[in-house]
Amino acid sequence: MLNSSKCIICKKECSKNKDICETCESFFEWKHKTNFKKRLRELKKYFSKESNSIKFREDKMKSKTLAIFGLVFFLSMVAMQFVMAVDFNQPISSEDKQTFDQILEPVMKIYNLIKYVATVVAVIVLLFAGLTYMTAGSNPAKREQAKSMIMYVVIGLVVIWIAPLIVNFIVS
Fold this sequence. Notes:
This protein has 172 residues and is mainly α. It has a domain of 81 residues. A two-stranded antiparallel sheet has the order 1-2.
C-alpha cells in the first residue's frame, strides 16, 4: 500500500491515508472530525468492554474445568467404594486365566496398533515442532508454541508406552 497509515484507535493498517480505519469509521459513522475526542472515548470504552467479555469467558471456562475435575474426582471416589468392597484374596482358577487371556488378546492387539500409530504420528508432530522452532526466528510466541508441542508429544509418548508396565505392576 503506497498511501497507508496506522489507525490512531485500533493501531491497524488503514488505506486512503486516513487517521482512522474503515472498521472504526463504520463503527461510529465517521463523517468529519467533529467531536473527535468524544468518539475516541466511546471507541476506547467499546474495546475495553470487549476485552472484559473475553476475561469473563476465560473465567467461565476455568470454572467449568474446575467443575468437571470435581465431578471426575467425586465419581472416582464412588467407584473406589465398589473396588474396596471386592475381595481380591480369592485364588484365580486356570479356567478363569484362560478366559481372561482370550478376552485380553484382541484388546492387546488393538492397543499395540494404537501405540505404534501414535508413535508414528508423534514423530511427525515432533518434526513439525522442530521445524517451527527453527523457523521461528525472533518470534517468541512461535518458539513457545513449538516447545509446548514437543513437551506434550513427549508426555503422550511416555503415557502410551509406560501404561502397560504400570498395569502389570499394579496387577502383580
